[in-house]
Amino acid sequence: MIGNPGEVRRCILIVEDSRTQAEALRSFLEDSGFSTSVAPSGEKALEYLRASKVDLVVSDIIMPGMSGLELCQALRADPELGDIPFMLLTSLVDPLDVIRGLESGADNYVTKPYDEAQLLRRIGRTFERRARPRSSTTPSPIEITFLGSRFAVRSEREQILDVLISSFEDIARANVSLRAAEEERAVLYAQERQARRDAEEARARAEEANLAKSEFLAMMSHDLRTPLNAIAGYSELLALGVRGPVTAPQLADLERIQRNQRHLLNLVNDILSYAKIETGTIPLEMAPVKLEANVRPLRAVIEPQAAKRGITYEYLGGDPNAVVMADLERLEQVLINLLGNAVKFTADGGRVTMRCFTRDGMGIIEVTDTGIGIPESKIKVIFDPFVQVDANRGKRDGVGLGLAISRKLAQAMGGEIEVRSEVGVGSTFTVSLKLVEPAA
Ligand code: ADP
């Protein structure tokens, strides 16, 4: 506490147009042992000072109406009020504020946002200096040129010294925090550079690994397909009896060999497709594709598969004018995969439907089944490679690449695949592709 404890509290008039700032300062000064009053403008401050005695004025500089500097000048020119100690609060936006303060006759200043200890020190010093005897003659003005402007300072030497010491103190503090900020910036910069280098290295490593993986897959798939084709060829020769008579049990075994060969070949083909998509080596032949005319004929592919399981397949039609941008062969691959899955994951006697329509500039093909559905927790991941919903694993064909390939293809064509599903009710997969604007 610097406001004389036990004695009458010294009274400070706070002149501040911001109510929140005035309140913060008021509560701090009250806690430090002063009594305070607040004036919201220079004009109100003058009125107050004419009616009440205060020991110090602490005033903001920039206020609507009379500024802090003008208030100080008005006080100094007033024979009754000329001697009231006066401190300015400056945000130091303008470095000339300090000199202008001196010129107006202010005792000292504090920069905003103020440091509490510093504010108390400066108030204390002002009171101390004011308590010392002063010369009775008015000091002659000192001419100062600062930043190209001339100022006439009339203050006493001690008062000038006070202000100069204060500004020196501020500069020293600013310097310290500037240096600290610079050091911090240098550290941050070094950290950021290191992080960028690390990220770059990690990206390069990941790219290399990805490429190596895809190259390996592509090579393996090729090396696997050649012997698989040989197995198909020779078992067919045997089945045809080219190498001699074949018994019925031998024929049944040959059929099993052929079925497994086809299954393995499908898997290898899927892996090869996926690896090619990953390495970006699938060329797309994008062209306008009439949806209705190209989707309807897929019935020929899917109906026989569905019929074998007693599943009804129905094409529900679509807008005959809808034309999308797509690679037709790839679009067919995607739809056949979705239709195949719909049949694969639907119980015998179920129903699979397909329809197309347009919405928000997109041509949409929807494949719906009354199958087992996909649990909520798996919906997000079934488009990831090698993901299969556990319950289905092993019971059905596939390695879990079909949807991953389909999504990559749809995205490569500028479209998307999405799914809605409910366990035990069925699933709907939608492929959306950009519509070709009809020629004006
Ligand atoms: P695969 O069919 O080879 O398992 P996919 O990538 O085509 O691989 O499908 C991944 C998984 O998504 C399937 O294993 C299955 O669990 C689930 N799934 C795909 N389509 C359907 C569908 N129509 N109904 C229910 N589950 C499906």
Give the key terms:
440 residues; five-stranded parallel β-sheet; 18% strand; rod-shaped; binds adenosine-5'-diphosphate
What is the compact description of this entry?
The chain is α/β, with parallel strands linked by helices. It is 50% helix and 18% strand. The chain has 12 helices and 14 strands.
Task: Describe the secondary structure blueprint for this structure.
Blueprint lengths: L10 E5 L3 H13 L3 E5 L2 H10 L4 E5 L7 H10 L8 E5 L6 H8 L3 E4 L4 H16 L10 E5 L2 E5 L3 H83 L8 H31 L8 E4 H5 L3 H10 L3 E4 L7 E4 L1 H17 L6 E9 L2 E8 L6 H4 L22 H11 L3 E7 L3 E9 L6
Helix pairs in contact: 2-3, 5-6, 6-7, 7-12, 9-10, 10-12
Bound molecules: adenosine-5'-diphosphate (ADP).
Characterization of this structure:
The protein has 440 residues and is an alpha/beta fold. 50% of the residues lie in helices and 18% in strands. It is rod-shaped and about 140 Å long. The two termini are 83 Å apart. The mean pLDDT is 89. The chain binds adenosine-5'-diphosphate (ADP).
